[in-house]
Amino acid sequence: MASAQEGIFLKEEEAPKAVFPDATSFLRKVIPSNDDLKDKIKQRMGKTLTSLWEDSYVTFVAKKGETILGYAAIIEEIGKHRPITFIVGVGLDRKIRDAALMVYREAYGGEVRDRRFLQQYKGKDLKDPLLPYRDIQNISSATMSVEAIGRGSKKALALLEVVYFEGTERK
Amino acid sequence: MRFVIVILSSLLVLPAVCAAQESDLAAEVKELRAKLERLEKKMADEEAQKMKRAEAEKAAITEQVKKDVMTDVAAKAQSYFGKLIEQTKVGAYGSMRYGTSNLDDLHNTFTFRRFVMTVDSPIYERLKAYMELEFERFTSLELDKKLTRTAGGGLTSEVAIEGTAKSEISMEQAWMQYDIADWLKFRGGAVLVPLGRFNINHDDNRWDLPRRSLVDKGTPVLPTTAAWPELGAGFLGDIAIGNTGKLTYQAYVMNGVALNSEIEQIGQTRAGDTTKLAYEVKLQPSRGTFSDDVKRGKAIGTRWAYSPGLGDEIGASVYWGRYTPDFLPNKPVFSFAIDGKKTWGPFEIEGQYVNTQWSGVRGVARGLAQRAISSSSEAEIGDVETEVEFELANLASRKQGYWVDFRYHFWPDFLSNTIFGKHFPNPQLIATFRAEQVWFSELLNSVAFTGGALTDFRTENRLLNRFTLGLTYRPVPLVALQLAYEYTRTNRGKSLSSVTNFLPARDGEYFQNAVLMGLTFGF
Q: Cβ of B492: how many Cβ atoms within 10 Å?
C-alpha cells in the first residue's frame, strides 16, 4: 500500500544533499539508541522535552573530497497527531546548516515544509529556544507543527553533539 | 528282449509319468498364475495407494495454497485497513464562555459555545478526506411520535420534540481532496466558502477573543453566519513566488446561500384576552441545502491571497450567486472581501473587510407578496386566536463592515516559575484590541402585504460599532483562557437586537457593556 496521504518530499538518499548541497559524498551511519544515549540527548536539550522513541537514528557524515563539512540526522517528531520526518544538517561550528522536510502527514499545517519557514533554523544551536514567538516566526494554524520542528531540530543538534562532536564517532 | 521290455515298460509308465508331469505343470502354472494375480493385485493396490496419496497430496497442496492465498489476502487487507484506521485521526475543538451584560434580558450566564469533532483520513496516496461535525449549544434532542386509536373512534397522532434552546447539530465540513499537484488540488463535498479569512480559519481555539466577529457571525455581513459551508466542488492550491513569496487560491462552484423558511410556533396566554396560537414564517438567508437545490442557479466563490513572507498575507475574495428560490424573482447576492495579516515579531495586525449586496430586495418582497398573498392572517374561534405571519428578515440592500485585531504576544519571566509557566515549554500571554464596525444600507425593517400586493416596505440605515479589549493565556498552543471587555453600540435610541443575532436588547437599548471569560481547547 502506498503511504496513504503522506506527503513525501524527500527520499532518504536525497535528504543529506538537501542540507549539504556542496558535499560530494555522504557516509551513512545508523546509530542505535539506548538508555545512555537517550539520557545524554535529554541532558543536552535542557528544558525542551521531546519524544525519544527511535530504536536507531540514521545519520550522515557530509564530505567534500576528504574534508568533513558537517553531519546530518534524520529525525521524527509528533506534530498534532502524526509524526513529521525531517533532516537536520549541522556544520562543524555546531550550528544548523539547514533543515528539510522529508515526510509530512498532518491534514493541516503543511506550510512548515516551505523553504521560507525552514530557513529560520539556519545558524541556530542548542542554546537557542527554537520556539514560536521567541526566535521562530509562527505559522498560524500550524503552531503544533512549528513547535515539533523546533523540538526535533534540538534533538538532532543534541544527537549529533553526543555522537559526532563528543562521542564515539568523533573524527 | 530286455530292451523291448524296457521300451514297453517305458511306454506303459510314460503316460503315467506324463500325467504326473502334466499335473505338476498345471499346479505350477496355477501357482504362477496365483502369484501373478497376487502380484498384479499388489501392484494395483500399490498403484491405487499411490494415486490416493498423490490425490491427498494434491488436495493438501491445493488447500495449503488456498490457505496461503487467503492468509496473504487477509494480511494485505488487514494491513490496508489497519494502516487506514491507524492513520485516521479524530480530533476536536470546543469552547465555552461566561458572560455578564448590562442588558436587562441577558443574564449572567455560562454558554457552551460549541464542540466540534474532526476526523481526517488518508484514503490513498494523494487522496484524503476530512469532516467536522458541530454541536453548538447542544445538550439534548429527543423526538417522540405516537399513533393511537382515539377512544370512541378515530386516530390520534402525537409528536413531541424535546430539546434545549438554540441547540444545533451541524455538518461544518465533509470533503474529499485529490492532490494532483501543489498548485492544483481538487476538493469536493461540504466545503468552507472562501470569503474573507475568518470563515476558512474559524476554529475557536485559534482565536484569542471569546466571541466571534460581527462581520462573520454576530450580524453577519457575510451572506450567512460563519462557519459557512456549502455543498460544491472546485480547486485550490499554492504557487511559490520567488524565494519567500507564495500565492494561494481556492475556487468553488456551490449550491449557495438561499432564502429559507424558519417556522416559529408561539403559544401565548394573555391577561383579559384570548389565548393566541401564532406561526411566524421567517424567510431569511441561510446556507444552501445539502439536498435538492431550491433554485436553478449555482454560486461561485473564490479567494486569492499573496504572502510576500512568513506571517504576512493579503487576500481578496468574491462570492456571487442567486439567493432566491425558484418561486421568487431571480436575484443575486454579491460579496467581496479584502483581508490581511502583518507580523512584526510578537506584534500582529490581522483584519477583514466584507461588503455584501443583496439585489432587488423590494422586488423579492413583492414576489413574496404575490406568492404568499397575505403577510398576516388571523382568525378567532371561541377563546383561541390563531395567527399566521410571513416575514422577510436579515436583508439589506448593502451591508459592509470590518474587524481589525491588534495582538501582542509576551511572557514575563517572573511567571515562568509559577503554576502558569513551570509545567509548560512555551506559555504565552496575548493582549488583543479589536475594533469592529458594520454599516447597514436599507436594512429591512418591516414588510407587509395583503391580497398579493405589498402594503408596507420600510427600511433604515444603521451603524453598529464594537470595541473589545482582551487578555489571553495560552499554556500550550491548543488551549486558551480568555478574559475580555467589550462595548457594543448602535444608533442612539434604537435596539441592538435589530442589528445583531445574539443580543436580546429591548427597544431603546442601544449599547452593551459586557465582560466575558472564555475557555477554548483543541486536540
A: 8
